[in-house]
Design brief:
61 residues
Length: 61
């Protein structure tokens, strides 16, 4: 188990101290985030469509 002593603070880079990402990495991260969100919405739309289809099939025949 690691014990943190006040005499040895943990160095967590934040703000201006944080290492800068390259522009390509930022674009890749944004693109992957967008794909993840679109995938979630597509999955939700598919489930809603399936539920509507199943409901109509049940009541209409």
């Amino acid at each position: 188990m690691t014990t943190i002593h006040p005499s040895r603070p943990v160095d967590i880079p934040t703000g201006a101290d944080a290492p800068q990402q390259s522009a390509g990495a930022s674009v890749l991260t944004a693109g992957l985030s967008l794909l993840a969100v679109l995938g979630i919405f597509a999955g939700a739309a598919a489930l809603i469509g399936f539920a509507i289809h199943a409901t109509l099939t049940y009541f209409v025949g």
